[in-house]
Design brief:
The complex is a heterodimer.
Chain A: H1 18-44, H2 55-92, H3 100-125
Helix pairs in contact in A: 1-2, 1-3, 2-3
Chain B: H1 8-16, H2 19-26, H3 30-35, H4 42-71, H5 81-113, H6 122-147
Helix pairs in contact in B: 4-5, 5-6
């Protein structure tokens, strides 16, 4: 028995569209991270008074945004891999799809980005 | 109530667990999770994952909104209103993203044990925060239009 080759999310093997919906959810999340990252990098330019900002601390202010951008790219890649797993599960009926490590990592990065944004807010606006 | 959806025997035993066990239960690692019950239907797993992602996106939207209101939106309302709004939104974003894994794990646990899904305080929390923020914006706009005769 040859297993169908699963390459692209346009191939939809299950009637509930699980694989496609999950793929799109990851892509949306990746795009959100990238957009927030760009926004944070942009806003970090307005932070504080340049006189008081050493180069190092300016780098620190840009970091949350860079983190968001990088995470966005990784998440979109992950979405494609996840699509392949989900489509395979749909075809073979295999369970055991949960990915605690990816979920934990994503939650941790989101928290870091949010805390970084909070610090930008505190240092920049007042 | 936290205990809704579990048997009273479990609820009682939870009450006697030392905090470290409770912590481990609420924040399980991958190996802890794989030891619980049996693998759920892959569709449920993916539904839980998508819900988690939706909460993460919500947290990101609150973060962007919070920073935008302080740094992009022009001054409006009473002094400090943008500050209050921005901090409220960003703190909510931090709370949502910091607790999102815990909620995902609770749901995963219930799925693996075939139990009812645990209740979540977040829809209510988010509803309250957005309502309060909207009311502050409304109050600010009214304050503004009352302040000068435009």
């Amino acid at each position: 028995m040859t297993r169908p080759r699963l390459g692209h999310p346009s191939e939809i093997p299950d009637p509930g569209l699980q694989s496609e919906r999950t793929y799109l959810a990851w892509q949306r999340t990746g795009l959100s991270f990238a957009a927030v990252g760009v926004f944070l990098v942009h806003e970090s330019g307005h932070v504080g008074h340049p006189k008081h900002l050493e180069q190092l601390s300016h780098l620190a202010v840009v970091l949350p945004g860079i983190l968001g951008l990088t995470t966005g790219a990784l998440i979109m890649l992950r979405g494609l891999l996840r699509y392949r797993q989900a489509a395979t599960a749909a075809l073979t009926g295999a369970d055991g799809m949960s990915a605690p490590t990816a979920v934990a990592a994503l939650a941790a990065v989101a928290t870091l980005v949010a805390v970084g944004g909070f610090l930008i807010l505190l240092t920049g606006a007042f | 109530m936290r205990m809704t959806g579990r048997t009273s025997a479990q609820a009682r035993s939870d009450g006697h667990q030392p905090w470290r066990l409770r912590w481990r239960r609420q924040w399980p690692n991958a190996a802890d999770i794989r030891r619980i019950g049996s693998e759920p239907d892959y569709r449920f797993t993916l539904a839980n994952e998508r819900t988690f992602l939706a909460w993460i996106r919500t947290a990101l939207a609150l973060l962007a909104g919070g920073i935008a209101v302080v740094q992009v939106v022009p001054d409006f309302g009473f002094p400090g209103s943008r500050r209050v709004l921005g901090i409220t939104l960003v703190v909510t974003s931090i709370v949502l993203s910091a607790t999102s894994y815990r909620h995902w794990a609770e749901v995963e646990r219930a799925l693996r044990l075939g139990q009812p899904l645990p209740p979540s305080p977040f829809p209510r929390l988010l509803g309250i925060v957005i309502t309060v923020v909207s009311l502050i914006v409304l109050a600010s706009l009214l304050y503004n239009s009352g302040g000068d005769a435009r």
